[in-house]
Amino acid sequence: MAVSADSVFAPIDLIEVGDALAELPEDLAAQALAELNEDPATRLQFLEELRNLLQSHELYEELQVRTDFRFLLPFARARKFRMEEAAANVINYYTFARKMGWDKAVHVDAFRTALETGAMWVLGQDDEGRTMVSLQGAFFETSRASLADFQRALYFLLHLCIRDDATQIRGFVILEDMRGMGLDAASFERNGAKVCFEMMSKNFPARMKGFYVVNQPWFISGLFKVAKPFVSSKISSRVHMLGSDLSKLHEIFGADKLPRQYYGGEVEFDWPSHVAAIYDEVGAVYEPPQRLVLTSTLSPLPKEFGIDVVQLDGRISVSGIDAGSLGEHLGLHLGDIIETLNGLPVRFMRHLKLKKSWPAVTVELIRPSPEEKARRDELIAKTFGVGVDHADAQPVFSGDAAASPASDGAAQDDAAAYDSDGYDSEGATDPFGEYPDAALADDASHAGSIASAGSHVEYSDVGSDGDDGHEPERSGSDNDGDDGDDGDDGDDGGDGEDSEHDNPFV
């Protein structure tokens, strides 16, 4: 791997360098022969001929094409050892990366923010030995990172996956949970899906064996139609919309392979360890923010959190905590940045609504260092004219900011389109009670402003919020990429021996 000592690299550098090829385990070699036409007796000869073909290509020198065998092997496998297709895949790979600007060397920290949002990660291998890449649609938040940042981070993550022989041969699957995804995150789906499918169809050396979507909102079918013309018929046939029935996903992959927080599985997913493993793969050290998971099982569940919050850059910070409140019982601190509530992302005050049917309340949060907390408090004060008096744990407003903080008031007027259980009139799931397009656009325009001086959020199944959004008061409301294949892949999955690893990338 051609990653520099200071962890600066282009994605292509993650593919091992050299002509020496490892001997495959017997079961993996048998699968490669049966499905990919990879014959150990002729493999080196094929790669030598592929090298010669590429060196004669008109773009060879301009693109500075690598022709070492360890680089060429994933392309040969992705195209089932068909010479012309493998060569085209290599050239397409270079031209696509150049077009997207992904051929440049960057430090691993360039991907940090996108990875820390929780929008993407590698789960490991399923029972067939396929690598599982998971996406969380609601976490593609452009307030945290740009669309280009997310796309580039996914490209980087897929390069880490294909360093493994088993992934090159058995392929990978993508799982996406779209629960809680609003139209603000849909911009990634609309543009990102097109780029992703374009990449996987002909511009990347990997076998995408399936794309499984759960909890998709109503508008996703339309977005898929936009992306479909850019996708081969084989790839599009591998897209499966499963709706809200997670049991179907469990039948395919097994609950023991899926995280409890997002797919109702049995695995406890540890965020810092996952990002640290990514950094370790490129020889870097990850120094994570302090991430905590706090759970309360108070019964009966209080009607209110009893906390004050401030919204900045699409993130909710705790600015006040009532004595004896659920927030205090959870162990929240001033300055904590709340990321999820019972597995759902928290971006606006309304996302902190409680449901009295919940047996427990779990929040995932970042607890900033004192230095970061002071920096964030200063930014809040400069941006909004709002200070946080940590002595009495109450927000203190100054200047004109107190008279016109941003809120969800405009959105509340349109909330009648949704019933109290979080479903719209068409029956599509809408767990956050996201509002129609105009209201969402209004919310998006207020990203980076004060959500409310106090959350005192009550049960969400009592009725719609009545906050008019004009005063900073306690609300008290009721709240496979193998085009041209002439036959089925015939994957039998092997015996799955390679599916158990501490490191998700191998």
From TrEMBL:
Residues 398-506 are annotated as: Disordered. Residues 479-500 have a biased composition (Acidic residues). One of its GO terms (cellular component) is membrane. Residues 398-420, 446-456 have a biased composition (Low complexity). Residues 122-270 form the CRAL-TRIO domain. InterPro entries: CRAL-TRIO_dom (IPR001251), CRAL-TRIO_dom_sf (IPR036865), CRAL/TRIO_N_dom_sf (IPR036273), PDZ (IPR001478), PDZ_sf (IPR036034). Residues 467-477 have a biased composition (Basic and acidic residues). It holds the Pfam family CRAL_TRIO. One of its GO terms (molecular function) is phosphatidylinositol bisphosphate binding. This is Clavesin-2.
